[in-house]
Design brief:
The protein has 230 residues and is α/β, with parallel strands linked by helices. The protein is built from 5 helices and 11 strands; from the N terminus they run E-H-E-H-E-H-E-H-H-E-E-E-E-E-E-E. The longest helix has 16 residues.
């Protein structure tokens, strides 16, 4: 049985996309909605029809539906076969559901790219200027009970031939921006680099400052209470 919603003047929309950050965004939205005792909606958008989604994407959607039911969300909304810009879709749903607060994950664009070329955030500010936006950053901690990794720091990958070099200085040659988690007790830049590629969060192995393969590794993000906002 759903709890009685008292704050009908407020309404939360959580926007999720494929990758490990989706669950974290939903949990954050649930906390805010519970504190405010207001309606909660969860939205995902895909340019492909639902029946053409691969097994991995279908699994994410099933997981989000379960989380929506578990946390008594008012609706889980899928906008499939959607050819419009995602900001247009989010704005439309926001108007239909009288949304007052939107929760989004950190975009794959660097801050400079957002300023120079615009971003989904800027588009939403134009489309729905009276809605509050909560931008949840990529977590800077990892689940490592043995203290295997230090706290993450901002870093970049520069492409060199068939591999990538880790650097901590932003340059025009930068290919990816993310968070580097250094292994504890090493003098070299060994560890994990966490970033977004094609709108999905990846974590790749770094050995002596070099990434040879962009294959995702299995260490999961930490959904602790001290997650950062942008």
């Amino acid at each position: 049985m759903k709890p009685i919603k008292e704050r009908m003047d407020e309404s939360i929309l959580v926007c999720v996309y494929y990758g490990p950050n989706g669950e974290r965004l939903i949990q954050r939205g649930c906390k805010i909605a519970n504190m405010m005792k207001c309606p909660l909606y969860i939205l995902t958008v895909d340019p492909k029809p639902f029946d053409e989604l691969d097994a991995e994407k279908s699994a994410y959607i099933s997981q989000w539906k379960e989380l929506a039911e578990k946390h008594n969300a008012d609706a889980f909304i899928i906008k499939d076969n959607e050819k419009r810009p995602i900001s247009k879709v989010i704005a439309e749903v926001s108007r239909e559901r009288n949304i007052t607060q939107i929760i989004l994950g950190q975009t794959a664009q660097s801050r400079w790219e957002q300023i120079a070329k615009g971003s989904i955030i800027n588009s939403l500010l134009r489309e729905v200027p009276f809605v509050d936006l909560h931008i949840i950053s990529v977590s800077r901690t990892l689940k490592n009970p043995d203290g295997h990794f230090e706290k993450g720091c901002r870093a970049y990958l520069v492409e060199e031939d068939d591999q990538y070099r880790l650097t901590f200085k932003h340059t025009k040659a930068m290919r990816y921006e993310g968070i580097f988690f250094k292994e504890s007790g090493t003098d070299f830049n060994n560890g994990l680099f966490k970033f977004m590629k094609d709108r999905e969060t990846l974590q790749v192995q770094v050995e002596e400052g070099i990434v040879k393969d962009l294959t995702n590794v299995s260490v999961q993000p930490n959904d602790s209470e001290d997650d950062d906002y942008l």
